[in-house]
Specification:
- The chain is an alpha+beta fold.
- The chain has 2 domains: 100 residues; 106 residues, 60s Ribosomal Protein L30, Chain: A.
- 59% of the residues lie in helices and 9% in strands.
- The protein is built from 6 helices and 4 strands, in the order αααβαβαβαβ.
- Strands 1-4-2-3 form a 4-stranded mixed sheet.
- Strand 2, helix 5 and strand 3 form a beta-alpha-beta unit.
- The longest helix is centred in the middle third of the chain and has 70 residues.
Length: 239
């Protein structure tokens, strides 16, 4: 058997020696590589690549590269989910704010419509009251309802029936003759007489209040029958 001698070139020896003696990476280098892998993983997610496409999973010598890539991919996914949730939350908040604003606007519009309707009804009532609530008059020292005032009281009763929510004050008044006490009592009788007559026309007495001013509120201040006849009256005022 013959033995041969093989000569290995020096360049190959040097190369093999340098590989065998390659120094380990420093902590800073590992950190930089890991960050680079993480950035790649982050971008991979944004590019739509699945987690299973990690190119470093076969690198057994540098497992931190695979971990860094996965961490980057996971962070990108978490960031996207957080952004999606924030967008959804904002959309929901915006929708709620819009719904609340619309509801508030609808309420305001309804309240305004109701206010206008109430004002219109109030104006209608006042216009009708101005036509119906006319004074009636009495003879001297009397509280009897006069025949020619009965149509006026009928108009008042019709008004009260047309506007069931309306309430009226009946104020009895007298002329200047007589004492204050006497005229206050007579004014009460005159207001009560009108109320009693209105009851016979089918109006609930609870819708009326009565008061006497005696001779305290004359319409005319001249000392003659023409003035006194104006002051001997019942006035009807919407409350």
């Amino acid at each position: 058997m013959r033995y041969g001698i093989y000569v290995v070139p020096a360049a190959i020896v040097l190369t093999l020696g340098s590989l065998a003696c390659k120094p380990p990476k420093t902590a800073e280098q590992i950190k930089a590589d890991t960050q680079r892998a993480s950035n790649e993983g982050y971008q991979a997610f944004k590019d739509g690549k699945p987690r299973a496409t990690n190119p470093y999973v076969t690198n057994k010598e540098e497992p931190y590269m695979a971990q860094g890539w996965n961490d980057g991919w996971d962070k990108a996914k978490a960031d996207q989910e957080a952004a999606d949730k924030a967008a959804a939350d904002k959309a929901a908040a915006d929708a709620k704010a819009a719904a609340d604003a619309k509801a508030a606007a609808d309420r305001a519009a309804a309240e305004e419509a109701a206010r206008k309707a109430a004002e219109a009804v109030k104006e209608t009532v006042h216009m009708a009251a101005a036509k119906a609530l006319m004074n009636i008059h009495f003879d001297f020292d009397k509280s009897d309802i006069k025949e020619n005032d009965r149509p006026t009281l009928q108009h008042i009763a019709d008004f009260m029936k047309a506007f069931p929510a309306a309430k009226v004050e009946i104020a009895g008044n007298c002329d200047e003759r007589g004492t204050n006490e006497y005229n206050l009592a007579l004014g009460n009788k005159r207001a009560a007489a009108a109320l009693a007559y209105l009851k016979t026309l089918g109006v609930d007495e609870a819708r009326f209040t009565t008061i006497s001013y005696g001779k305290e509120k004359p319409l005319c201040t001249e000392a003659n029958e023409a003035c006194w006849s104006q002051n001997r009256r019942d006035e009807f005022k919407l409350k």
